[in-house]
Specification:
heterodimer, A: 94 residues, alpha+beta, Alpha-Beta Plaits, B: mainly alpha, 87% helix
Chain lengths: 94, 206
């Protein structure tokens, strides 16, 4: 099983939107443990933000849904870290 | 079946969502403005109807109730319709502009929902405020119909209620603008006194 453990996303959000609300909503997504948001650029109606999301197994589909719901458009995924979860087998008695 | 705790949680989420929609759509300030404007209109219209019928020599409470309520309801319907259409047009325009800036569809997002909720709420506030004030000011005439008050006393009570509403609206505005609430109250009240004087002298002339 392959788990997404870290994502760096470049997005565009409405200027009047709150990054506090957005970060809290993302933190409630299944598998997310930590969210960092940095505002990179401010425009008249929009803000360009960089999100760094960490977790044991981030549910990407739910993450996209929450971001879309907050009017945040994903422009690109700049970094990703995935890991294959080892399936532990019971040790054979010797 | 939902337990009481689940129902309460759902209700809390529902009211929390509305609070968020209102903040996003900046409803508070516009709703206050609509409320004051239309309540002011409602109070002045009832003042006009009550004084006008009194000066004309009407002593039947049914006529005053019909005229006052008719005017209030017409204002209410006009308020709901006008505010809904105007808000819908303005908010659709703003949403489309935001969509084109973000290159995305926002109709089903929080922004789209906030826009729709704000439109309906503002239309409701715009519609309910004149009819609520009209009903409050006309209530003494219902008491006349029930035989609890005399007509003359009901006229003064109704005028007093309308003037008290005007004063309260002024105080409310004073509180918002953080100015002297009594001065603001008197300023609003003066509009009511002015219309009363005009109608009184018009009645003398006619």
């Amino acid at each position: 099983m392959v788990n997404i453990r870290r994502l760096v996303i470049d997005s565009l959000m409405p200027r009047d939107s709150s990054i506090i609300d957005l970060s809290q909503a993302i933190c409630r997504v299944e598998g997310v443990e930590e969210v960092d948001i940095s505002v990179m650029e401010v425009d008249v109606k929009t803000e360009t933000i960089k999100l760094t999301i960490r977790g044991a197994n981030i549910n990407y589909d739910e993450l996209c849904k929450v971001m879309n719901d907050h009017g945040t458009a994903i422009r690109s995924i700049d970094e990703i870290n995935v890991a294959r979860k080892k399936i532990s087998t019971p040790s054979q008695p010797t | 079946m939902l337990s009481i705790r689940q129902k309460l949680k759902a209700l809390r989420n529902f009211s929390g969502n509305f609070k968020q929609y209102f903040q996003m759509a900046k409803v508070g300030e516009i709703a206050r403005r609509y409320f004051v404007l239309n309540a002011f209109d409602g109070a002045l219209i009832v003042l006009g109807v009550v004084l006008g019928t009194y000066v004309a020599g009407v002593t039947d409470p049914h006529i005053v109730i019909s005229a006052g309520l008719g005017a209030g309801l017409a204002m209410s319907l006009s308020g709901v319709w006008g505010a809904y259409m105007a808000e819908k047009a303005e908010r659709s325009k703003a949403l489309k502009e935001l969509e084109s800036a973000l290159f995305t569809d926002l109709k089903n997002s929080l922004w789209g929902r906030a826009s729709r909720v704000a439109t309906v709420w503002l239309a409701f506030v715009n519609g309910i405020s004149p009819v609520a004030v009209a009903l409050a000011a006309i209530t003494p005439f219902f008491l006349v119909k029930l035989g609890l008050l005399g007509f003359q006393f009901a006229v003064f009570l109704s005028l007093g209620t309308a003037l008290a509403v005007l004063f309260a609206l002024g105080m409310f505005l004073g509180k918002i603008s953080k100015e002297n609430i009594f001065v603001q109250g008197v300023k609003m009240l003066s509009a009511g006194v002015l219309i009363a004087l005009i109608l009184y002298f018009a009645g003398l002339v006619l």
